Amino acid sequence: SELVNQDSVSYVAFVAGSYDLFVEVTYDTNEGLFDFLAALKAKSGVSSCETATVLKLLKTQYSFQIRSTTI
User: Fold this and answer.
1) Cα–Cα distance between 38 and 36 in angstroms, integer?
2) What are φ and ψ of residue 11, in 5° steps?
3) Contact 12/21 with Cβ under 8 angstroms?
4) Under 8 Å between Cβ of 34 and 19
5) Which residues have CB under 8 Å from 41's CB, separation 6+?
6) Contacts with 47 (C-beta within 8 Å, 6 or more apart), sequence order
7) Could you write out the three-class secondary structure of 2-70?
8) 47, 36 in Cβ contact below 8 A?
9) How many CA atoms lie within 13 A of 17 on its CB side?
10) Max Cα distance, the chain (Å)
11) Predicted structure pTM score
């Protein structure tokens, strides 16, 4: 819940596969990203993280809808 309240965070989702959580953040400087990653890695329960820097944005339109399931 701490992540979703940060202004720099635009997307947070639990995912299946190689990772547990996907977080999209935007910073104007490398220093801002460095500080975010340092704070993230210091959190209890975070064992590792991986980053990818967007070099050129080609399209930025996406929309997700989650179907409700009953078990």
Assistant:
1) 6
2) -155, 130
3) yes
4) no
5) 49
6) none
7) CHHHCCCEEEEEECCCCCCEEEEECCCCHHHHHHHHHHHHCCCCCCCCCCCCCCCCCCCCCCCCCCCCC
8) no
9) 6
10) 45
11) 0.75
Mind listing the pLDDT tens digit for each residue in 13-66?
999 999 999 999 999 999 999 999 999 999 988 989 999 998 999 998 877 777
Q: How many CA atoms lie within 13 A of 30 on its CB side?
A: 2
Answer whether residue 7 shows pLDDT above 90. Answer: yes
Q: What is the pLDDT of residue 20?
A: 92
d(CA 15, CA 48) in angstroms, rounded, equals 15
CB atoms within 10 A of CB 11: 13
